[in-house]
Design a protein that fits this description.
This protein is an alpha/beta fold. The chain is built from five helices and eight strands, in the order H-E-E-H-E-E-H-E-H-E-H-E-E. It folds into two domains: 90 residues, Translation initiation factor 3 (IF-3), N-terminal domain (Ubiquitin-like (UB roll)), CATH 3.10.20.80; 83 residues, Translation initiation factor 3 (IF-3), C-terminal domain (Translation Initiation Factor IF3, 2-Layer Sandwich). A hairpin with a 6-residue loop joins strand 3 and strand 4. The longest helix has 18 residues. The radius of gyration is 28 Å and the shape is elongated.
Length: 185
């Protein structure tokens, strides 16, 4: 059984943890800009004074913009804040559209009817928001006809019309030629 190094687990843990907000005593700067729980701007003040103000209201002092000079802190319930952050993060993840690369394999010997069928399938992929990888595999003596295969691929890509752009131009790896096309933004 293969043992994994400790750095593997640290990297995985780093990927899993969301950005952390510093709260209360973990805020290590001398002065901060404070906003109260109602959104009222209280101005710049000493961190200790801001922390006392938050404690008097039985709330937490949370650093919401640590890169600002001085950092911006809000007086709020930290548990509720973390819950809302997680909720917005999960909503963003749900709205994300994962773009897939679908492959259509043709040959320079492929008949016109088969090319038309594959073109319709590729247009369906493009209309769903995916990218299409056009593949041509050359076998044996076909490898001598790279230029003809390239022309076939370019003609196939042009058959989609003007709404499609070549995102990755013609590339060759061994006997496989490929290009990736996608819809114009």
């Amino acid at each position: 059984m293969q043992r994994r190094s400790p750095s593997f687990y640290r990297k995985r843990l780093a990927r899993q943890q969301p950005t952390l907000f510093r709260a209360n005593e973990r805020i290590r700067v001398p002065a901060v800009v404070v906003i109260d729980e109602n959104g009222k701007h209280l101005g710049e003040m000493d961190t200790k004074k801001a922390l006392e103000l938050a404690r008097s209201q039985e709330l937490d002092l949370v650093e919401v913009q640590p890169k600002a000079v001085p950092p911006i802190c809000k007086i709020l319930d930290f548990g509720q804040f973390q819950y809302e952050q997680e909720k917005t993060r999960s909503k963003q993840k749900a709205r994300q559209k994962k773009v897939e690369v679908k492959t259509v394999r043709i040959s320079f010997r492929t008949g016109e009817h088969d090319k038309e069928t594959k073109r319709l399938q590729a247009e369906k992929f493009l209309s769903q928001g995916n990218k299409v990888k056009i593949d041509v595999v050359l076998r044996g003596r076909e490898k001598a006809y790279v230029e003809e295969a390239k022309q076939t691929m370019e003609a196939f890509a042009k058959s989609f019309g003007e709404g499609v752009v070549v995102e990755q131009p013609f590339s060759k790896q061994g006997g496989r030629l490929s290009m990736i096309v996608g819809k114009k933004s």
